[in-house]
RNA sequence: GCGGCUAUGGUUUAGUGGUUAUGACAUGAGCUUCCCAAGCUCAGAACCCGGGUUCAAAUCCCGGUAGCCGCACCA
């Protein structure tokens, strides 16, 4: 008996049955790259579809697609060129690796001397165009593409906050040591939403819909003290100030609902708050959705951050573009304002070369200074005389103000989700002394939705089977057809890859045109008319009907 | 990147400095059976890559690559 832990069992199954394969295998593979085989690709596609259903269709955020390669400016502005790098140094004596601290000379662990400093920027760098020296980077997140399009998005959403935009795509990070299957890759898929909100309005219009969702929370405070998680409704968590804003809370609930819908185990999901020392300097509140894995413990699969105005401010500055939103007041405000009109002719004559500085000083003059009757240019104090400026008090109507939005960002690691889903779905049980391996994936997530199995490959059963297969394919189901080996063996084959329903053609089919449908999880069977198979399958997969009631239970 | 362990058919595994490299499961063909991995026959399919030592290397040595564990980082 070979003893494997769950990770090994899942990866072994994934490789053997065409979910996941190490990339470039015939050339020896390279860490951090995995191929999705036929079933893995189908599974991943279903996860992405549900994600889009959640965030784009139900959530109302449109999806966009921006290049995976970006020009240098994007990442200079975002800070990735300077900060998405680790300066590392190793102790020559004990081998411990440290992030470089300028004051550090000796190893803090053992006092040994340190080796040479090496920097890793985790971005892949390349050049754009033939002979061009224009630098390009493969993106390490999809977010920047969405920030860079802010001015277009704002117009698309007709100049109103809040609005959100979603993107699913490949991102690249030259990880130092990728391993652990698809939990840590150099090329991977993330699904991100950037929600732009008015920083003064952190309540969520649909908060009521999710306020009773119960979350397993692991706040920063508990991580530092007793290490216990709290089970709280979203409403309580926000009211107690554990989750700082309704808006973030709403999306934490959405993350949980999404994970449950695709088949995660509820008790294996928790939300961990970033502690002060790990939270990005610009972020206001950060949580990670973590999933419990058998070998690696709790691992991060979704991050949700309030990034504040960091990104928009950075791009506005670097690109010299306005990235604010005009937010109208409920009622326009009327106020009186002193309007100062410099007499350029007189100023020019009097101050000559310094005239520009004087007008600039006038332009930024405060009312207090104006009342003092002087302005300050450099070290000089200049009296404001009537020949230099004219002024008048005007009454003006202000209808709103410009606001730099804050960004709420849920960011899903799709490949990690694929692995965890396989692990959470993986089950073994004893059936009449035999080991049965079942992937208990929800029917609408399973890569193959049904398999058609003629009991025998003759007597016309095969012909009937082919007919059922075609009718299912015509109705949009991804199905398989299998007539090799005994019926039991074929059921087991499909249990192992999570096929939820098996349609069996038997001798009774020839008499009364009925077939059986077998439920993967219970192994129970119902009998339905051959012509009803597509509609019954549709209801079963959508979860609109209880299995035992979808036909005549055998 | 550093340290430790490891590398044999699709998967898992045995093995030895020397003929044609085990077995199991899986896969394909056939027979038989026919509603939960039955049986029989047959078939295809492997020593991670490169260098060295040796008459001879899958085996010993060195280097690389990959995997697992730890450090670090993260979706």
Tell me what the structure shows.
It is a single chain. Helix 2 packs antiparallel against helix 10 (246-262) and helix 3 (72-78) packs across helix 11. The strands form eight sheets. Strands 3-10-11-21-16-15-14-12-13 form a nine-stranded mixed sheet. Strand 22 and strand 23 form a beta hairpin. By secondary structure, the protein is of the alpha+beta class. 31% of the residues lie in helices and 32% in strands. The protein folds into four domains: 6-84 and 122-312 and 407-415, 2-Layer Sandwich (BirA Bifunctional Protein, domain 2); 86-121; 326-400, no CATH class; 448-553, Anticodon-binding domain (Rossmann fold), CATH 3.40.50.800. The two termini are 37 Å apart.
What key attributes describe this structure?
BirA Bifunctional Protein, domain 2; alpha+beta; RNA-binding; 32% strand; 19 helices; 554 residues; elongated; single chain; 4 domains; 29 strands
């Amino acid at each position: 008996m070979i003893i494997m832990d769950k990770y090994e069992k899942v990866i072994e199954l994934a490789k053997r049955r065409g979910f996941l394969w190490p990339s470039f295998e015939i050339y020896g593979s390279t860490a951090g790259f995995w191929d999705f085989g036929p079933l893995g690709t189908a599974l991943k596609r279903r996860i992405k579809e549900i994600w889009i259903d959640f965030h784009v269709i139900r959530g109302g955020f449109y999806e966009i697609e921006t290049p995976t390669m970006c020009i240098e400016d994007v990442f200079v502005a975002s800070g990735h060129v300077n900060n998405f790098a680790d300066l590392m140094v190793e102790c020559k004596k004990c081998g411990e690796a440290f992030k470089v601290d300028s004051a550090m000379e000796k190893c803090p662990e053992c006092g040994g001397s340190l080796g040479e400093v090496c920097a890793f920027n985790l971005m892949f760098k390349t050049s754009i165009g033939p002979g061009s020296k224009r630098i390009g980077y493969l993106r390490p997140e999809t977010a920047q593409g969405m920030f860079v399009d802010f001015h277009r998005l704002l117009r698309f959403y007709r100049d109103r906050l809040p609005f959100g935009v979603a993107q699913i795509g490949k991102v690249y990070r030259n990880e130092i040591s990728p391993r652990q299957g698809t939990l840590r890759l150099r090329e991977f898929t993330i699904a991100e939403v950037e929600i732009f909100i008015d920083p003064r309005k952190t309540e969520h219009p649909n908060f009521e819909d999710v306020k009773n969702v119960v979350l397993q929370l692991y706040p920063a405070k508990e991580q530092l003290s007793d290490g216990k998680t709290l089970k709280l409704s979203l409403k309580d968590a926000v009211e107690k100030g554990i989750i700082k804003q309704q808006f973030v809370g709403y999306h934490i609930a959405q993350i949980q609902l999404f994970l449950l819908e695709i088949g995660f185990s509820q008790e294996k999901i928790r939300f961990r708050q970033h502690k002060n020392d790990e939270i990005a300097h610009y972020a206001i509140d950060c949580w990670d959705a973590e999933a419990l894995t058998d070998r690696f413990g709790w691992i991060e699969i979704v991050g949700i951050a309030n990034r504040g105005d960091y990104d928009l401010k950075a791009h506005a500055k670097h690109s010299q573009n306005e990235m604010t939103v005009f937010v109208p007041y409920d009622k326009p405000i009327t106020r009186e304002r002193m309007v100062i009109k410099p007499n350029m002719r007189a100023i020019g004559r009097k101050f000559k070369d310094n005239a520009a500085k004087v007008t600039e000083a006038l332009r930024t003059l405060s009312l207090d200074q104006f009342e003092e009757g002087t302005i300050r240019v450099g070290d000089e104090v200049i009296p404001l005389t009537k020949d230099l400026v004219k002024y008048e008090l005007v009454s003006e109507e202000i209808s709103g103000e410009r606001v730099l939005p804050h960004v709420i960002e849920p960011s899903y690691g799709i490949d990690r989700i694929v692995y965890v889903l396989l692990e959470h779905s993986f089950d073994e049980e004893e059936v009449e002394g035999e080991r049965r391996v079942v992937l208990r994936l929800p029917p609408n997530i399973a890569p193959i939705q049904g398999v058609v199995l003629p009991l025998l490959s003759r007597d016309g059963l095969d012909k009937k089977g082919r007919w059922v297969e075609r009718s299912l394919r015509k109705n949009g189901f991804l199905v398989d057809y299998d007539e090799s080996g005994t019926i039991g063996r074929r059921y087991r084959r499909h249990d192992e890859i999570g096929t939820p329903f098996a349609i069996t053609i038997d001798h009774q089919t020839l008499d009364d045109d009925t077939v059986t449908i077998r439920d993967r999880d219970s192994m129970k069977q119902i009998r339905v008319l051959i012509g009803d198979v597509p509609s019954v399958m549709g209801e079963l997969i959508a979860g609109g009907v209880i299995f035992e009631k979808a036909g005549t239970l055998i």
